[in-house]
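Thread: Newbie trying to understand structure tokens

Hi all, I'm a second-year student working on a class project, and my supervisor (Dr. K.) asked me to get a predicted structure for one chain before our next meeting. I've only ever worked with sequences, so writing a 3D structure as a token string is new to me. If someone could post the tokens and maybe explain what I'm looking at, I'd be very grateful. Here's the chain:
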Amino acid sequence: MSGFPRGKAAVVGTATFGIGEAKGFSSLDIAVHASLKALAQAGLTPADVDSVSVALPDDFFSGMSITEYMGLRPKLSNNNRTGGSSFMTHMMSAALALDAGLCEVALIAYGSNQRTNPNKPMVVPSRPSIYEAPYKMREPVSSYALAASRHMHLYGTTREQLGAVALASRLWAQLNPEAFLREPLSMDDYLKARLVSDPLTARDCCVSTDGGAALVMVRADRAPDHLAKPAYVLGCAEACYNREISSMPDVTETSAKEAAARAFGQAGVSRSEIDVVQVYDAFTINPILFLEDLGFCPKGEGGRFVQGGRIAPGGALPTNTNGGSLSCVHPGMYGIFSLVEAAQQLSGLAGQRQVPGVNLSLAQATGGSLSHQAVAILGSVDTLRA
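---
Reply by user tm_fold:
Sure, no problem. This is what the structure looks like when written as tokens:
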């Protein structure tokens, strides 16, 4: 027994807002607009919400702020902040609270205007690194560049394999009208891109955008009343070993391995059953590392695994089907977009990028520099009967 209430909570509303540039909107505005859209999809109103989880980049009291803005009266408020993976921790807490009867409608939301905000930087690091700051690294890209360099050294990973990740993301983005970057990207374009932090170039790095997203959760027995095809939460787990990359024993292996093992154990499904995968692709090395750590291929095989269109449209393992951080959206913390896309694929709401026959969807996110890791596995109603 895992202790996690498998399939007892479901996502019944999902929405994004302001992807790209949302001039004139604050981060809170963006989160509220996304929330209202998600609630409307579920046939609910702000008056129905009694649990709220928010982690805005420029407001550490954002749970109180969105409560005041929307006129909510929540029984539960959650401002847990682990970076981009925050929203998986919010989902886990909401699933537990719903199962325990502590709330009826849980709202999870995020918004950021980091691209159009005139008062950058929006987020100040919690503390300077006494180990890394003296080397004047360009963070966070330099930490991920170290991981990429080490993976190349140990396993023979090539720039073309990193490029396969970038090209797959762009192909997915071309199917998503909301995606920030949709123009064609060739391997030649990728290889000629400006170097940022060796070996990573501008095409290895995520976009910098505005944007927000929200999702609404209810107990499973209520879910069909709100959405024709709900996304049921089968497993959700987190793990963390470090804050800084200099504290990692091996920069090519993350605690996503542990989080995934627990999430799959809770869900009671195998890797081969997963239909779509959403991983945190802030840099092209990330999907390679995470697909390994999630167990879709052996450690060291990630570069070869992503080649040949395997993770692109029409591939065997559709990955980052909205275009990901590399081409769709990255407003500072990305994990909620992975959850929204995972749920929309299950609910048949992904439009032109919809993968046929999705019954199981996995969403993973990282916080910090390969630090906190979280994994959620969502399933269709058919998976509850399995």
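A couple of things are worth pointing out once you decode it. The first strand starts at residue 9 and ends at 20. The domain at 9-118+206-380 is CATH 3.40.47.10 (Peroxisomal Thiolase; Chain A, domain 1). Feel free to ask follow-ups in this thread.
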